[in-house]
Specification:
The chain is mainly α. The chain contains 13 helices and no strands.
């Protein structure tokens, strides 16, 4: 990967990692699905009037919009809203790496390699430690919801890669149109109705609205457009593991800004999940170097 692409990947994960603090703070003003709907509303408007529709099918745009808008962020916001701490959410969402590579293997008809089994096992051990330490701030339901969000992220990665080499900024903007209706409908029926939605938006402080705009422009338009662009330029196995740095930013920012505790079990769990990701990323090249050295 060229240095410029690597620096772009690092900028993306820095934005994504620290964003979990913004999410937690903004959820004090907005219910989760309304928050997600507003995120994609401002990612769509008014920018959609200034960028052409990408040369990809409506079905592809719809699949990506539903996977990221509802499956990933709607569900993850719901989980962070009292069901899992933001620092741990930044860690657990990285299960997307295994889902992304798993989907790529499934559609490419590739078999699961031994080192990948080991990598998944190590990461799952870390998730198991988290599951054993559920409490008021992190519930088993919250853990399961964020794993599902990771699956949805993996599906979105697969869909965006199938779109080929296109303008990813335009792609993310237009796909947002398919995220908004279901998110607003879920909020309308399950978060208090239209009167509650309108009063919530009217009374939300400026800081909460800035959080919405940061979600829309910093994370959606910059983060996911740049992420999709990297996926279109490089193999999934090379790009997908780069967010393993997200938990470092996420847990660090949560500890600093939200005073989220970092007990030994949490550090151990994070170490195991990240170790699994590292094995999955670096084992093939390490094995190749060992064979070359011995050969």
């Amino acid at each position: 990967m060229p240095l410029s692409h690597l620096l772009l990947a690092l900028a993306i994960v820095a934005v994504w990692g620290t964003n979990f603090v913004v999410i937690k703070i903004s959820l004090e003003a907005f219910p989760p699905f309304l928050f997600a709907a507003l995120r994609y509303f401002f990612a769509l408007l008014p920018i959609v009037f200034f960028v052409p529709r990408p040369k990809v099918s409506w079905r592809n745009l719809c699949a990506y919009g539903l996977a990221t808008g509802v499956g990933q962020f709607g569900v993850m916001y719901f989980a962070i809203d009292g069901r899992i701490s933001p620092g741990l959410a930044s860690l657990v969402i990285q299960t997307q790496v295994f889902f992304t590579i798993g989907f790529a293997m499934f559609f490419a008809k590739e078999g699961l390699k031994r080192y990948q089994v080991v990598a998944v096992g190590v990461a799952m051990t870390g998730l198991g430690i988290i599951a054993l330490h559920t409490d008021a701030s992190t519930t088993f339901m919250g853990l399961a919801l964020v794993v599902f969000a990771g699956l949805s992220w993996g599906a979105a990665n697969t869909v965006s890669r199938s779109a080929g080499s296109i303008n990813m900024f335009s792609y993310v903007v237009w796909a947002s149109a398919f995220s908004i209706p279901p998110l607003f409908l879920i909020s309308l029926f399950f978060e208090g109705g239209w009167e509650h939605m309108s009063s919530t938006m009217a009374s939300a402080p400026l800081g909460a609205w800035l959080g919405v705009l940061w979600q829309s422009w910093g994370n959606t338009l910059f983060g996911y457009a740049a992420w999709g662009w990297l996926l279109s330029k490089h193999p999934a196995a090379l790009v997908a593991p780069t967010p393993l740095l997200v938990p470092i930013f996420g847990m660090g920012a949560s500890a600093y800004f939200l005073s989220e505790p970092l007990p030994t079990w949490k550090i151990l769990a994070a170490g195991l999940v990240i170790a699994g990701l590292v094995v999955n990323l670096f084992w093939p090249s390490l094995e190749s170097k060992i064979k070359h050295h011995l050969g």
